[in-house]
Amino acid sequence: MTPPEAPEDGKNQPGDTPPAASVCASETLTILRKRSEFLNAARARRQGTSSMMVQARKRAEGEADGIRVGFTCSKKVGNAVARNRAKRRLREAARAVLPEKGQDGWDYVLIGRADVTAGRPYAALLDDLRYALRKVHAARK
């Protein structure tokens, strides 16, 4: 599958600009930006997988609409290049899985793991996220 900014004929023409990044973004996902939002999610439910940690919390009524998601990787993941690669892969996994498996009114924070998130096969990364969401939303006893 070619990225949306790739020209149909495979040749770049002078003056051709790629579309804005929002072309790939889902309308149902909003990105968490404030530290307080990340901290609120950290105090709620969490589920670890081999490639990531997922923190999730149900927001209070009227707090915000839709599904919100944040991404983070500590310095344990590696240098800036490794952290950014891991976050890019988590963003793509979230775009693919959260609109179908995430629940409206929830915040999710995806945390990358050292040496695993960036190198795990993409299909396995998606399966890990689906598994974590299933566990987080399972009825608590």
Automatic annotation (TrEMBL):
A molecular function GO annotation: ribonuclease P activity
Entry EC number(s): 3.1.26.5
Name of a matching Pfam family: Ribonuclease_P
Claim: tRNA processing is one of the keywords in the record: yes
Superkingdom of this protein's organism: Bacteria
Stated role: RNaseP catalyzes the removal of the 5'-leader sequence from pre-tRNA to produce the mature 5'-terminus. It can also cleave other RNA substrates such as 4.5S RNA. The protein component plays an auxiliary but essential role in vivo by binding to the 5'-leader sequence and broadening the substrate specificity of the ribozyme.
PANTHER family in the record: RIBONUCLEASE P PROTEIN COMPONENT
NCBIfam families linked to this entry: rnpA
Sequence similarity: Belongs to the RnpA family.
Protein name listed in UniProt: Ribonuclease P protein component
Source species of the chain: Ruegeria faecimaris
